[in-house]
Write a structure and sequence with these properties.
Helix content: over 70%
Radius of gyration: 73 Å
Strand content: under 5%
Structural class: mainly alpha
């Protein structure tokens, strides 16, 4: 039973401690009794073979502290019953220790029933032999055996009820776990649906934002294109105006050149006319002077003749 409770792995941490050494008057007798306990495989022998250690408690504080210090230095190890209940999810009855107890109770119940049958046979024989004293003794033994049987049956029933209660609790825990799992799944589904809705909404907002950005970009491109067209038109108009101004300027320059040419021609004509007039006047003056000289000459020649 103790082996099944601890398990082989935890037996190395078990201290089998002998006490009352202060009352031992014969050390050899004490050691012999201790040796007998250790060699008996139905008592401590099997435990020592599987790793348990033997210690002596001398009944003093120092001895107790030494045992505690030795115990504290051990590496903790889970018991088999702990592993089976916690990790393997067994009920107490389903553990190795529980099965051992159940088997012992069944064996005890069987033993006490057989004992009761034997006592009943002996009691009937005593009745037949009219042995009142033996009958009373057997009745007392029957009563004790019946109490033991009832105790074993009660313990067996209690173990069965404990097993049923643990199974019921396990089923409730299973149902609760299933409910929690379904709740978690539903919550996860709601979360996923909410996330999907948020993603769709976000995608819709993103698509709307992209459309708006594209529309703004297109509008900006159209404005830029219109501005370029306006600038080209303005440049063309300015170029046309400048060309018109240049043409007007060129025409004005040509007109000025023509006017200057006309003025030059007029001045040349005037100068030629003035020169011609001057020449004519000079010729006239020379002619007049010649005529005057001729007249004077004639006048001078006629006077001489008179003389």
């Amino acid at each position: 039973m103790f082996q099944k409770l601890c398990g082989r792995g935890a037996l190395k941490n078990v201290f089998l401690t002998t006490t009352q050494w202060s009352r031992v008057t014969d050390p050899e007798d004490g050691e012999s009794r201790e040796k007998g306990l250790c060699q008996d495989r139905n008592f401590w022998g099997i435990l020592l073979e599987k790793g348990a250690t033997l210690q002596r408690f001398q009944g003093t504080r120092e001895s107790g502290l030494k045992l505690i210090e030795h115990l504290m230095s051990n590496q903790p190890e889970a018991l088999d019953i702990q592993d089976q209940i916690v990790t393997q999810k067994r009920t107490i009855v389903e553990t190795d220790a529980g099965q051992c107890i159940n088997e012992e109770l069944i064996e005890q119940e069987k033993k006490y029933k057989e004992e009761l049958k034997a006592l009943e046979r002996e009691r009937q024989e005593a009745i037949a032999e009219k042995d009142e004293e033996m009958k009373e003794l057997l009745a007392e033994e029957q009563k004790k055996a019946q109490e033991k049987l009832e105790k074993a049956a009660a313990e067996k029933k209690m173990l069965a009820e404990l097993h049923a209660e643990e199974l019921r609790k396990r089923e409730i825990e299973k149902q609760n776990a299933q409910a929690e799992l379904e709740k978690a799944r539903a919550e996860q589904q709601r979360s996923e649906e909410s996330h999907a809705a948020q993603m769709r909404e976000q995608q819709a907002r993103e698509a709307q934002r992209v459309r708006e950005e594209l529309a703004d970009l297109h509008a900006a491109q159209m404005r830029e294109q219109q501005e370029r067209q306006d600038r080209r038109r303005d440049e063309q108009e300015r170029a046309a105006a400048e060309a018109s101004q240049m043409a007007a300027l060129h025409s004005a320059q040509l007109q000025q050149q023509q006017e200057r040419a006309d003025r030059a021609q007029a001045e040349a004509s005037q100068m030629a006319a003035a020169l011609h007039a001057a020449q004519l006047r000079e010729q006239q003056e020379r002619a007049e002077r010649a005529e005057a000289e001729a007249r004077r000459a004639r006048e001078d020649g006629g006077g001489c003749i008179i003389c």
